[in-house]
Amino acid sequence: xxxxxxxxxxxxxxxxxxxxxxxxxxxxxxxxxxxxxxxxxxxxxxxxxxxxxxxxxxxxxxxxxxxxxxxxxxxxxxxxxxxxxxxxxxxxxxxxxxxxxxxxxxxxxxxxxxxxxxxxxxxxxxxxxxxxxxxxxxxxxxxxxxxxxxxxxxxxxxxxxxxxxxxxxxxxxxxxxxxxxxxxxxxxxxxxxxxxxxxxxxxxxxxxxxxxxxxxxxxxxxxxxxxxxxxxxxxxxxxxxxxxxxxxxxxxxxxxxxxxxxxxxxxxxxxxxxxxxxxxxxxxxxxxxxxxxxxxxxxxxxxxxxxxxxxxxxxxxxxxxxxxxxxxxxxxxxxxxxxxxxxxxxxxxxxxxxxxxxxxxxxxxxxxxxxxxxxxxxxxxxxxxxxxxxxxxxxxxxxxxxxxxxxxxxxxxxxxxxxxxxxxxxxxxxxxxxxxxxxxxxxxxxxxxxx
Length: 451
Known about the structure:
The protein is an alpha/beta fold. Helix content is 23%, strand content 26%. It starts with a strand and ends with a helix. The relative contact order is 0.07.
């Protein structure tokens, strides 16, 4: 197979987002637009990937380096158009012999299959392959004009289109594949003699046809080229992503009585036979095994829920939570970086942070793992079969042995041995008749005050 490289255009300032976050670092499905495009071009077989960045967005450069290495970013400075952006990668690809994909960095719904169609056009003889699409509203898009043989002859920008050209349905999606030598040769000839004084990548079509090279277009779904220039467009892309994920999980056998209320991330992993009740949010990094039930209004992130476990309603699983088989995590229970053993239960109003809960243990309502002293985090370990009474504070670092009992209302600061009972309470004092006398005195004061 011909070697493949990609140039991702991510130097736009994204001012229409009206956000301090660079456009391509906004997220769909919990994954940045740039990361999603990188994932897609990697899946399409691109071994060398360069990201065109601007001086105005050091965060984008940093993300490109983190994902792809120090040599991945190429700088466009100053920004002089799309053609100029791709030329920024000419030097780093000077030794590359293969096809170069040019792709936008803000297309969160682009798939590897969409790109494969372009590479297929190349293998079938096209010198330049273009991604086209037929939008519902083509007003703002350049038109792709084809000859009688179906080959592309020109791309016309909307500002320069006549009424006849505006009637053409096929529009330019802004993604291209050509051999590296051809691509950069054509780009080197592009002029900036236009009202904006910019170098447009669309002009490579004219350069290719001038050489009588074959230019062909693939018609992709509109969602494939859908960019996210505004918060509204970002929300639209999110809605499409969520709909697709819901359909995917339903088809795989995940039970969701109200799927339109469930929110997924790009890497959510739900096994067939799992159940998700309404209004559940899956942030990145969640895996749910078969038979598990996630009850309504729960939020999960970076967590594993094992087979047959029950989570929620109104539960929060934070990164590092590992809920064992048949375990129960109930309403208003928060778990962070704790392994909960098989059949263990924490059914009400508790915080479990840093440590472990053994198989079959019971964590009473109001229990707190006191894991932080203002400087460091410490672990709490509750042994298998232990019983922690309600309203208990376990002050870490601490271990509660297997089968031990903790009396309700205790503040436990020392390790508890297996099968022992630990209590920490003040002496209970009872004064007979005090409540009746108190009410009598207060009633008299209230009556006197009313006069």
